[in-house]
Design brief:
- Helix content is about 70%, strand content about 5%.
- It has a 3-stranded antiparallel beta sheet.
- The protein has helices spanning about 1-15, 20-40, 60, 95-115, 115-150, 165-215, 220-235, 245-260, 270-315, 320-360, 380-405, 415-420, 435-470, 470-480; strands at about 45-55, 85-90, 365-370.
Length: about 475
C-alpha cells in the first residue's frame, strides 16, 4: 500500500511540472464547450389538454385505427387516469411557432369532432362497405379454391389421425404386429400339421399291425407272419439292398396281395382303442384346418398392410406438398373470414353509434387547458452539459500533464533513480533555494491557482446565467452589437 502511495505521489510531482500546459488546455476545452452549449438553440414545448367523451360515432370508427396518429394520449396530472383525456404537444426552437402549431392542431381536432363527424362517419361507412364487398369476393374465391382442391385430392388429403408421417408410422406399427401374428399362426399351423402327420402315420402302422394279427389265424396269415419275422432278422444283419432282403420283401408283397384278394373268413372286432385313436385324429385334422384358415386370414391382413405402407411410401413426395398447399389454403380462408367478420362488426357498430348520436347529443368536447406560449425551454439541459464540460476539461488537462510527464520523465529522489536506471547511486547534491527562486515559485503557484479559480468563477457565472434566465437577454445584446449572427 505504501509503495502505491509513493508511486502516486511521484506521478503527481512529475505532472505538476506541466501544470501550465494542463490549465491552458482545460481553459480551451471549457471555453469551447461552454460556448457550444450556450449557443445551442432552445427547445420550447407547447401543449393543450382536451377532454373528449367519445361515446358516439367516433369510438367505433377511431378504435384500432390510425386516424389520431399525431395525438398522444396520456394521463393529466391532478385528474383521474381515463381514456377520454388527450394531450396535443409540439416542440420547436421558436416558442411562438410551437404555440401556433398546437393551436392549429387543436382547431382541426375540434372541427373534425364537432363539425365533420357525420361526414367522416358516412365516409368511414362507405369505406367499410367497399372493404366488405372486396373481402366477400376474396372469401368466396378462397372457399372455391379450397373446395376444388379437396375434390381433386380427396384420396391424398390428411386424415383425422394426422399427416403422412404419422399415418406411415401407424401403418408400419400395425404391419409389424400383423407380421408377428403371421409368424405365430404359421408356427401353430406347422406344429399341428406335424402332429397330424405323425398321428396319421402311427394310425396307419397300427391298422397294418391289426390286419396282420387278424390274419394270423389262417395258414396264409401264419406264413406271412413267419416271413415278416424272418425279414426283421435279416434287416438286423444286412441292409435293404441285400439280395435276400429284396427277395423276401417281394414274397411278402405277393402274399399280402393274395391275402387281400381272398374274402375274410370272419370279421375282427373293432377295439375301443381304435375308436379313440380315430377321434383324436379327427380333432387334430379339424384344428389343422382351422389353423390354415387363420393363417390365410392373417396373410390377407399382412398383404393389406404391406400395400398400405408401400402406397404411403410412394406418396411421400406428393403428400407433404398436398398438406402444405391445404394448410396455405386454410390459412388464407381463415384470414379472409376473420377480416370479413371484423369489418361487418365495425360497420354494424358504426351504424348503431350513428343512430345513437342522432337520438341525442352524446358527444362532449371540452378544452381543459388551451395552448400557451412557453416561457422556459424544455431542452437542452444546459446545466448538466456545463457541468459535464467542466469535468471533461479538467480531465483533459490532467491527462495532458500526465502524458507529458511520462514523455519527459524526471527523478526526484535516489530511490526512484536507482530503481528505474538500475545503476548504483553514489550520493546526492541538495538544492539550495535562494530567496529569488522561492519568490518566483510562489508567484508561479499563485498564478496557477488564480487561473484555476477564474475557471471555477466562470463556471459559476455561467450556471447563474442559466438559473436566473439571463441567457436570452445576453444573446439579444450580442445580436444587437453584431457579436452573434441572427
Amino acid at each position: 500500500m505504501n509503495e502505491i502511495i509513493y508511486k502516486i505521489k511521484n506521478y503527481i510531482r512529475s505532472a505538476w511540472r506541466f501544470r501550465w500546459q494542463a490549465i491552458i488546455a482545460s481553459w480551451i476545452v471549457a471555453v469551447i464547450g461552454w460556448s457550444v452549449v450556450f449557443t445551442l438553440p432552445s427547445k420550447y414545448a407547447s401543449e393543450a389538454k382536451v377532454y373528449v367523451d367519445t361515446e358516439s360515432v367516433l369510438r367505433p370508427l377511431l378504435q384500432g385505427s390510425a386516424i389520431l396518429v399525431d395525438v398522444n394520449r396520456r394521463p393529466i396530472p391532478g385528474t383521474r387516469e381515463t381514456e377520454n383525456f388527450y394531450t396535443i404537444a409540439f416542440e420547436y426552437s421558436d416558442r411562438f411557432m410551437a404555440q401556433r402549431v398546437v393551436k392549429v392542431l387543436l382547431d382541426i381536432f375540434v372541427e373534425s369532432a364537432l363539425g365533420d363527424t357525420r361526414i367522416e362517419s358516412d365516409a368511414a361507412q362507405q369505406f367499410l362497405q367497399k372493404q366488405i364487398v372486396d373481402y366477400e369476393s376474396r372469401l368466396l374465391e378462397a372457399e372455391n379454391k379450397l373446395t376444388e382442391f379437396k375434390r381433386q385430392n380427396v384420396d391424398t388429403l390428411p386424415r383425422d389421425n394426422g399427416g403422412i408421417f404419422p399415418r406411415l408410422e401407424t401403418a408400419r406399427t400395425e404391419l409389424e404386429a400383423v407380421q408377428l401374428e403371421y409368424k405365430e399362426a404359421k408356427i401353430r399351423r406347422d406344429e399341428l400339421k406335424n402332429q397330424y402327420d405323425t398321428t396319421l402315420a402311427e394310425e396307419q402302422r397300427r391298422q397294418e399291425q391289426l390286419g396282420i394279427s387278424a390274419a394270423a389265424d389262417t395258414p396264409m396269415g401264419r406264413r406271412l407272419l413267419a416271413m415278416q419275422t424272418r425279414l426283421d432278422d435279416l434287416l438286423l444283419r444286412y441292409t435293404e439292398e441285400h439280395p435276400d432282403v429284396k427277395e423276401l420283401k417281394s414274397k411278402i408283397e405277393e402274399l399280402r396281395k393274395q391275402a387281400a384278394s381272398q374274402p375274410p373268413s370272419a370279421s375282427a372286432p373293432v377295439s375301443r382303442s381304435n375308436t379313440g385313436s380315430t377321434s383324436a385324429l379327427e380333432e387334430l385334422k379339424l384344428a389343422y384346418r382351422q389353423s390354415e384358415v387363420e393363417l390365410r386370414a392373417v396373410t390377407l391382413r399382412r398383404n393389406e398392410y404391406q400395400e398400405r405402407v408401400s402406397e404411403l411410401k410412394k406418396k411421400l413426395d406428393t403428400l407433404p406438398k398436398v398438406e402444405a398447399e391445404l394448410t396455405r389454403l386454410n390459412r388464407n380462408y381463415s384470414i379472409n373470414k376473420e377480416n370479413y367478420q371484423e369489418l361487418v362488426q365495425r360497420l354494424e357498430s358504426a351504424k348503431m353509434s350513428e343512430r345513437a348520436d342522432e337520438a341525442g347529443d352524446s358527444l362532449k368536447f371540452r378544452v381543459v387547458e388551451p395552448p400557451k406560449v412557453p416561457l422556459l425551454p424544455v431542452g437542452p439541459k444546459r446545466l448538466l452539459l456545463s457541468i459535464g464540460t467542466l469535468i471533461v476539461a479538467l480531465g483533459i488537462g490532467g491527462a495532458l500533464a500526465f502524458l507529458m510527464s511520462q514523455l519527459k520523465p524526471v527523478y526526484f529522489d535516489i530511490r526512484t533513480l536507482s530503481t528505474e536506471l538500475e545503476f548504483p547511486v553514489v550520493g546526492q547534491v541538495s538544492r539550495v533555494m535562494t530567496d529569488d527562486v522561492k519568490t518566483k515559485r510562489r508567484m508561479a503557484i499563485s498564478g496557477f491557482i488564480t487561473m484555476f479559480v477564474l475557471l471555477i468563477v466562470l463556471f459559476v457565472a455561467i450556471v447563474a446565467i442559466y438559473v436566473l434566465g439571463l441567457r436570452e437577454d445576453i444573446l439579444l445584446l450580442m445580436q444587437q452589437n453584431g457579436l452573434l449572427g441572427g
